[in-house]
């Protein structure tokens, strides 16, 4: 989580890679687990994913006008943390790339200066975090309209 700049309780979008699943993006929240590299899905998300599935986690930023202009000018670092699907057996060997100021920094290490700069710049950007969880809520009615 540290390498990807994802915080405990942060809202993410998760999607299963392959089989046209980019249409099936699900919103959930990260709950930090043990120090090993296990990725556990719980609750309703577990209905869509199985052990061994490859996934993509996406985070979002909420930008004001000034931040949006910086984003358009590539002045806000974007992290791309990737795993080789052929060799990834335990989520322990990730490659971190950062896109920033018109350049892509490949395979940076967590203690590299560019990572520290990215954290400083991104710390003031609003992210969505978990506020409350309601579990085992049963659907009692459905309706085909979104608004009514």
Report on the architecture of this protein.
The protein is an alpha+beta fold. The chain has a single domain (11-122), classed as Barwin-like endoglucanases (Beta Barrel), CATH 2.40.40.20. Helices cover 12% and strands 21% of the residues. The protein has two helices and six strands, in the order E-E-E-H-E-E-E-H. It has a three-stranded antiparallel β-sheet, with no helix packed on it. Strand 5 and strand 6 (103-108) form a beta hairpin. The protein is globular and about 50 Å long. 5% of the residues are buried.
Secondary-structure element order, as H and E? EEEHEEEH
Name given to the CATH architecture:
Beta Barrel
Work out the radius of gyration: 17 Å
| Termini separation | 39 Å
Beta strand count: 6
The total domain count is: 1
**Shape estimate:** globular
Question: So what's the CATH class?
Answer: Mainly Beta
Strand order of the largest sheet: 2-1-3
CATH fold-type name: Barwin-like endoglucanases
Strand content: 15-25%
């Amino acid at each position: 989580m540290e390498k990807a700049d994802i915080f405990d309780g942060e809202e993410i979008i998760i999607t299963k890679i392959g089989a046209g699943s980019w249409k099936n993006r699900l919103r959930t929240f990260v709950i930090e687990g043990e120090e090993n590299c296990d990725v556990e899905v719980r609750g309703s998300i577990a209905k869509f994913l199985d052990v061994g599935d490859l996934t993509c986690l996406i985070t979002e930023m909420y930008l004001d006008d000034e931040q949006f202009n910086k984003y358009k000018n590539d002045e806000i670092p974007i992290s791309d943390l990737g795993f080789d699907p052929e060799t990834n057996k335990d989520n322990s060997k990730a490659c971190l790339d950062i896109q920033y100021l018109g350049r892509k920094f490949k395979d940076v290490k967590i203690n590299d200066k560019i990572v520290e700069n990215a954290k400083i710049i991104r710390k003031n950007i609003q992210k969505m975090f978990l506020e409350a969880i309601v579990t085992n809520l049963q659907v009692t009615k459905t309706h085909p309209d979104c608004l009514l």
